[in-house]
Design brief:
It is a single chain. The chain is α/β, with parallel strands linked by helices. It has two domains: about 160 residues, YjeF N-terminal domain (Rossmann fold, 3-Layer(aba) Sandwich), CATH 3.40.50; about 80 residues, no CATH class. The protein contains twelve helices and ten strands. The longest helix has 12 residues.
Length: about 250
Amino acid sequence: MIARYLLNQGVSVRVYLLTDPKGLRGDAETNFNIFQRMKGEVISVPSSKDYVKVKKDLEKFDILVDGIFGTGLDAEVRGYYREVIDHLNTLQRPIVAIDIPSGLDADTGKPLGTAIRASLTVTFGLPKVGHLIPPGIDYVGEVKVIDIGIPKRLVEDEKIPTHLLEEKEIKRWLSIPGTRIPTREIMDTCWSSPDRWARQGPQRWHARLRSGWSRLGHPGYPKKPEWHHGNEIDRGDDRTSSRNPQTNA
């Protein structure tokens, strides 16, 4: 479908199909047939032997669009597909991933053996957890969420337990004097991986409010939550003093 729209816009586009077109079904088959009727160029490369013949051609394009796998991938990428993904990552060309970089687990953000390193990921409806947490954030590049008309009521009915904390929410909290920021939520968003916390060495995040105290904690950090007091949100290190307002106020 993307190739169809690009062709309609006058963009020079070529589709490399990593399978035999005779095996296409459903929407894939429909869009393949429409693209062919539009005189679009499709090259079938169903095997490693076929792919070797087109490697040099791929270096000529300004942008690559990744649509190999989607969010439903749940097995390690092996063999031919791994070879293709690893090669594409060496081309030093901008890669736009559809929904999620091929090979990346949409829930955990972990590459399933290997994964495309995209410059831009265009996802649909809502961002996926794997877009936002390490190591996924190192694979997705910039993430753009596209509204495809999913009814808001359906999203609410799903009762999704994960919340993306955005800058505008923090600013709203800071604009209310005496507001206690749910710092643990901030921590869970910024430091969703204990491994990433450990890689930061002595640095840690703490929250300061315009007034009042804020509690700091993270499930991967071995110490108990600490209390900090101040006038702003900033980044501290282990030399920053802390007090518990219940005992030192």
